[in-house]
Amino acid sequence: MRALILLAHPEPRSFNAHLAAQAAEQLRHDHSQVDVVDLYAEGFDPLEAAWHHPRRLQPERFDAQREQRHSAELEQLPADVRRHLHLLRVADLVILQFPLWWFAAPAILKGWLDRVLVYGPMYNSRQRHEHGVMQGKRALLSVTTGSSARACAVDGREGDTRLLLWPLMYSLRYVGFEVMEPCVVHGVRSGLAAERVQAHDEALVAATLSYRERLTHWRQWPIVPFNDSDDFEDGVVLRADAIAHSPFIRHRDAG
Questions:
Q1: Of 1, 59, 234, 235, which residue is the least packed, with the fewest Cβ within 10 Å?
Q2: CB of 122 closer than 8 Å to CB of 114
């Protein structure tokens, strides 16, 4: 088994970096091969732009999808994209490790999606969703929040964290991954009052141990349900008899 851990945090001593290292250690202990990519450390460019595609299909106008596919067909994708594509293709498990910033993933991770989930090699009109290129592989979001679990609940002030993560999970499903229920550690803070530091640190230790234990049985980890193509009329609108798995894709109100 081979795993890819993608870290998106600018501080190498952060709790996110710690979780990435702990996950790698546990998976290697369980006889898996692990590749760790630190996007900030390697200076990954998150901007998809014309300069990444020197042999343009349309020099007069930049169309990201068409230029990605054209570069892929010419075997001239940028070196960092080619490397990450290779790591995705050989991985059985992909873990995205990141903090929730402004109710979303850090910009560098969104940019990674924009540049690495290449049109052509990673998806097209026939290879997506349950028929995607990554079918048979699993992906996990391992996420931290600064707010408490209560604040990040469905009725919390910060909003439902799982719902905030749904677009990213759907992006992974779009290219074929089976998406595991996200692992979220709440209340990861700095600058705490002295009397709160010990309880905070003990909670993070417990969360880390729990994460490692769950990773030993990652194949039994619960999977996020998504609608398959047959659930949509003409491939577009959710059928009346289909189950709605998320408020993002739901049945219209009767009224």
A1: 234
A2: no
- CA–CA distance from 57 to each of 53, 232, 248 (Å)? 9, 34, 35
| Claim: this prediction has a pTM higher than 0.90 | yes
**Structure token digits, residue 163:** 């719902």
The mean pLDDT of 8-37, rounded to a whole number, is 96
CA torsion angle 211 213 219 223 (round to 10): -40
* Among 167-176, 183-192, 204-213, 239-248, the least confident range: 183-192
> Does 254 score more than 50 pLDDT?
no
Res. 255: pLDDT tops 70: no
CA–CA separation, 160 and 50 (whole Å): 37
CA pair distance 64, 41, nearest whole angstrom? 26
Write the DSSP string, 140-160: EEEEE-SS-TTTTSTTSTT--
H or E, element range at 178:
strand 178-179
